[in-house]
Input
Amino acid sequence: MALAATSVKKTMPHTLFHTALYASLALCVLGLLWRSSAWFRVRVGPDARAVTLSQRLGALLRGTATALFGARVLHILGACFLDVLLLRRLFAREKPRWLGHLLILAGFTLLLLMHAFEALVTVKLFPGYESTLAPYLFLRNLFGAMVVAGIALLYFERWRRRTGLVSVRRPMAAAFAVLLGFVLATGYLLEAHKIASPQAFYRMAKRYSGTTDPGELMPLRAVWASEFGVAFDDLKEPFASNVMERGRQMHDADCAGCHAKPASAFVSYPVSRLLAPVTALLDKGRADIWLLYLHVFACFLGLATLPFTRFFHAVAVPISLLVNASAPNRAFSAAGRASRRALALDACLRCGICDAHCSVAPLARHLGNPYLLPSHKLVATGALANGRLLRSGRESDGFRVAEGAFLCTDCGRCTNDCPAGLDLEDLWQAGRGDLAAAGLPAPAQWVRALPALAWAEALEAAAGQHTATDPDASCAPLSADRRSFSRCVQCQTCTNVCPVVAQSIAADHRVDLTPQKVMNLLRLGLRDLTLGSRMVWDCATCYQCQENCPEGLRVTDIMCELRALAAHRLGAVRSWKAPS
Amino acid sequence: MKYALFLGCKIPSRLPAYELSTRAVLLRLGVTLVDLEFNCCGYPARNVSREAFVVAAARNLAIAERAGLDVLTPCTCCFGSLRHAISFLEEDPELRSRVSQALAVEGIAWSGKTEVEHLLPVLARTIGVDALGAAVRAPRAGLRVAAQYGCHALRPSNVARFDNPLAPTTFETLIRLTGATPVDWPRQLDCCGDPLHESNAPLSEHIARAKIADAKASGAEAMCTACPHCHLRFDSAQAGSPKPSIRSLLYTQLLGLAMGLDEKSLGLECPESPIRGR
Amino acid sequence: MTGERRNSFDVAVIGAGMAGMAAALFAAQRGLSCIQVGSGGGVLFASGLLDLLAVHPAAEGRQWQSPFAALAALAREQPDHPLARVDPASIRTAFETFVTALGEAGLAYAPLDERNRKVLTSIGTLKTTFGVPLSMVAGANALDALDAPNTPNTPPRCLLVDFRGLREFSARQIATTLADRWPGLCHGRIEFPGFEDVPELYAAHLARALETGETRDRTIALIRPMLGDAQLVGLPTVLGLGRCREVHAAFEAGLGVPVFEIPTMPTSVPGLRLLGALETVMSARGVRRRRLASVRALAFDANTGTATLDLDGVPGGERVSARAVVLATGRFSGRGLTADRGGVRESILGLPVHQPASREAWHQRDFLDPSGHAINRAGLRTDDAWRPLDMSGKPAWPRLFAVGSILADQDWMRSKCGSGLAIATAWAAMQQLADQLHGNTG
Output
């Protein structure tokens, strides 16, 4: 019970409090263990599949040892202070969010230390401490208000910076935020109620003045009614000055040692004014008890569920930041990398900063594929690594995830901007490896699985089933319009100037057609035969053919179109059997 | 002189030396570079959807237009991509209206006011050879380099409007200004192989190595590049080879050195660089 | 727009075939600033051989050993023929200037003679021409024996080599076709080094490959054992693209005998070489090229005297102004002329086209009629200064000129005078043009 605030001691049965506390602590610890064990179990990337659990644990031990006793210890201490406590990375990127985060972090931590752990911390550090004295009344309100302001600021920022992009859904995070708000609200309400409560007054009066007689206590009541906000329903201001004088003497004798004027509780006191009319009712219903129960059990619930919500990032992000600081230039062994990727999956708090700055965000929006965006891609990468994506068996999901993964340009902005310092580029590369292994490689690769003729046959076989609108005219206007290739005289210039055909001399990497033959197939109305052609897919888009065509055909532009068309049409007849 | 600097995706992540040296050189030449939050030029999406490609490109142009600036890019592929998007927008009114709708969501619009320029012609034409020549203090005399324009700088010539695509001279002129000598190499105008690396890596490597061998046989000591894709492809094609091979040298680094800028500000920390020791 | 792009020029040349290229070159040589619109794709169909005038009269198919003698005959018999309107000395100078420029751009020609040369073609026929690329001239030298007076002579023993997979060229077919005239022709086939696994070869790829020393040496090593007593070696036109002089020299040195290329069927290496060299010429002389653009509209300002050209095919469009304009848009294949139900029109300005009175008169009944078809003599008529005429028979515009095959009263294909027509009229017209401009500027 040393941990609990004094008021809890007085109100709550010890066994109940202990049982609940230790149960939620146990859940929290178990949860933390389970969640962090994933950092050594989950495998992202082909190279991660090649390392064993023991190698990863070994890397952890070695890493910890070198971190603690090696030359990087100063770096790590620096990171502890600057990155973890002061959120340096966030400060550099988005100052309002940094402020919001820092308010929550600081307010929450200080509340935890000063208020929740008051018997353990505050009382020991400040001998004259009483929770109802200045400045503690004020500070408690302030810390709570910091958390509330922080949360509000973060939601406001999220709204203000809305990008029109879909953000990753995170119901647990919202639930946890509600829980946190509930803890704060019950705390404030409890305090407000106690300020206004005559019941609490009489309880204290009995203990310190030895009487509960309203008449005898009349002067003190007058003082507490007018200056401490107790809502006596049998008293009316103004009070005679001699009564007040007497009351102040009584107050100084019995109360002043522990009670400062509550007006400094700048949240609770105004709330207590609002509650004044119903205080009698609340007193009757023992609101002091059930509000306390709600407050304490909400805290326990938060403690128990913390590892299972996004707030787990409060654990994972600091670890990730310290791990970063432990190796120069982010040089990690394969085992270290493997664990780091798994850690990244947990440390991402879906803040969406990466999405907002993502180079391909406009593509994501236009293609309607959120999997181009880092935060979605991270979730998908995790789902692929733990098998959920494959188990879902939904081809379309897999295709879209792959499209997103392979349209990423590796510009590195997400890694650069990530406030948690995650090496996302490494994660994307690993994820692409996993996709390829799962039968979802880049289009240029999956198209190669079949020769052009087989693709054309697949299209023909599926011709009856696909009645969807023909995308040709808008997405491939040139190849849909005879005029753009009918002038071809098959003069071979395009082939003669093509560096791909010119260097295509070894059997294993040779192209199947030449640009001129592709144009001829179009002339013959056999466009489907070109879609899976290696010539089309291996075209370097160097524009030699287009520049040199004596008839002015836009050969390269047509090649590009055919690829886009192939990605669309061959994609529709493609089947994906995920490897079991 | 003021431009919005369009770095694209490759330079910041893979070739920061190009950004460093571009900024250093242009700062010295009195060009103001403005950083706007651009997105991908759209190039990768050409293989998926023409419209998505144009939307992505047009968004960049609209952002520059809102800032009232022309776009300067040191990346040849981004250059080609942005200019291609302009030509698609101009030739296809239907596409233009769909793209305008997509941009309107963000309250921006493309009207064609913004020009897209590649770094090399800006140096050669806008800043001009006289100003460049005057800025050269430490000519790199004797250095022989192979000028690699990059396909999308030159072709298709109506879109690029860069130089004569069959017989370009801009890059050679710029190289001579630094005191270095451009070599004549038959495969100069060939593709570097980078765009097909994803679909056919062996063929891509083969193309890159043929170019490198050609430049070397023609007497070049370095590949002088003006595109991150070519630059990195040449480097990676030689990564596994045992013999010390020919280096890629960014034109901005060459020019910066000739202008007397220090190596660090040009991102030239690589000790094997052929211009060192001269 | 921040980038300075020049948009006013002395001369705008519309068209980039042989005539347009020649006009741009000659204008630039005269110090005029020049912009040239057109792809140059027509040049790709050239063989690299520069005909001057090989046949006259076309109806008789009479071949001439001396192009200048043929020109004299033409001047007597067809004074309206554009070639007949240029003096032979100027034609000579024009050709010299043209091949010198090409030589500087890496495509060397054999010194121009007074006579026409005979060149072996890839189908085994002999073609009469005037300007011969250096890499092809050894073959023409060998064929001189056929024309040698007095002694019945046969050309020296010659090895023709082809490559497995290069479909456009068969050494055996040439040797068979020519067996009676050139009995000393023998043939052989080799695998092109490095391309052993490639089923189908393309000449330009081989030409590029031969620009690397290793492939070149391996190819020479494959041919050497086949030489026997051959005194010269003939190959398809694959000896390099931009570096043909160096590759050709290496083959001659490596084989120890003269080596000559036989022009492959268009479009192939000869056209690519010629186009590359011409574009290099244009670049070197500061001619601005708009390769993939076309002229949508051409208008003349009566007050300022300048022409305004609106270009299509350039994003954003482009407008340039020029003090003089040269139409070198060719005939039907170059799209300088358009034929429809109403007759033949000039495509850009709608200038009156000299043409048969009715569609019935366009063609002879027999496609192969030796006298040719009237439609092939259609085109623009000009005044003495090469300015096309309007309906009233006056120059359509003081500084609008027309050169090359768009001109009327010639049938260059049958007279084998395509290059000659292009180069000679371009030369003459640029002289007039320069006089006009200088006259105007004082």
In short: Residues 271-278 of chain B have pLDDT under 50 and may be disordered.
